[in-house]
Specification:
about 220 residues, alpha/beta, Rossmann fold, eight-stranded mixed beta sheet, two-stranded antiparallel ribbon, about 35% helix
Length: about 220
């Protein structure tokens, strides 16, 4: 699968690239094509990096992709998604974007009027584009540490069953991450709001790279 990382030159984009490039063709996107090319080249030079990766501008990356991961800060999501809307025609869109603020002491969930970043992206894209919310609670630093074994669950929200299954499969391409379906895209605000909570818990209790694992006291029911 061809995966475009819109705004993919930052920490989370680098993390997704390193974790997925062995199984998929990765396209680093940026407002500036030169910056995207430099980022892709730098990733390939990292120890242990292996796979197919290249860089171009965001619009070109989206146009050739099967799936798009939005790696942009929440304050830029609206403008970036709007500017790229004409480049979308069939792609699956994955939003790990978390709208939050920090006052120096406390992280707060700060959703847009649509209710969540995933719903905001959906409202700006062509109606046929399927949006799935996922990967909010996977720390970017942990993603980038390619030799580190990740632990935890990836909570997924989406309205289209096929799109959700695609994100499940993509999640399982990252060793030891477990995909769990939460519900429709309307539930994405619940999942997005977990990130500032985790950051507060981590900060107050000196925990590094906090994540989410859903536990049960009973074994799973047979299929």
């Amino acid at each position: 699968m061809k995966i475009a990382l819109v705004g993919g030159t930052g920490d989370i984009g680098t993390g997704f690239a390193l974790r997925l490039m062995c199984s998929h063709e990765i396209i680093i996107g940026s407002r500036k094509e030169d910056k995207a090319r430099e980022s892709a080249s730098a990733i390939m030079q990292l120890e242990g990096a292996n796979g197919n990766i290249w860089g171009t501008d965001n619009a070109s990356a989206v146009a050739v992709a099967d799936a798009v991961i939005l790696c942009v800060p929440p304050e830029h999501l609206k403008s970036v998604t709007y500017d790229l809307s004409t480049s979308f025609n069939h792609q699956l869109v994955i939003s790990p974007v978390v709208p939050m603020s920090y006052d120096g002491k406390f992280f707060r969930f700060n959703p847009p009027p649509e209710g969540s970043s995933a719903l905001q992206a959906k409202s700006l894209l062509p109606p046929q584009i399927r949006v799935v919310a996922a990967f909010h609670t996977v720390p970017a630093a942990a993603l980038q540490a390619k030799d580190r074994i990740l632990k935890g669950d990836v909570l997924i929200c989406g309205d289209d069953a096929e799109a959700v299954d695609m994100v499940r499969s993509l999640t399982m391409d990252i060793k030891n991450l477990r995909p769990l379906f939460v519900g429709p895209l309307a539930a994405s605000s619940q999942v997005e709001s977990l990130t500032p909570m985790l950051l507060n818990v981590a900060r107050k209790n000196k925990i590094k790279e906090a994540g989410v694992s859903i536990i049960s006291e009973r074994p799973p029911a047979p299929n």
